[in-house]
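Hey, quick one: can you model this chain's 3D structure?
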Amino acid sequence: MRILTIAVLAAMAAPTMALASAEAPAVTSLGPARAAAPLAEALPTNGKVRMAVAKTTIPAGESLPEHMQPTLRYIYVVSGRVRVSNLVTGEAQEIGPGQMAAETKGQLHVATALDGLPADVLLIDGAAVEGATP
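Sure thing. Here's the predicted structure for all 134 residues.
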């Protein structure tokens, strides 16, 4: 969890960055959806994960484009409120500042700003470190 916290804080100061971690962050999803797996369990590695963090703003009442991730993605809300919807299962999570949601890899998702306000979010993607063994 310490590695993820550092990544989140650093991403607030810089628009994009990448970090490598030997440990999986212990993160769970919030809201009505099921708990997210630790990142290293979701990826076929020996626990070594490269993380990329990008900061973006979802304009008031708008959504990020529908998308499908090849890996697990976490969305951390810095300000505003966001609904993250899985378009395959119909599950939705509503999260606010300081909360996080997880998007399942390989399924279509959309994230929408709520309450008529913009939402600042961090998009946290993980991928196996090259050369890691399953």
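One thing worth noting: The longest strand covers residues 49-58.
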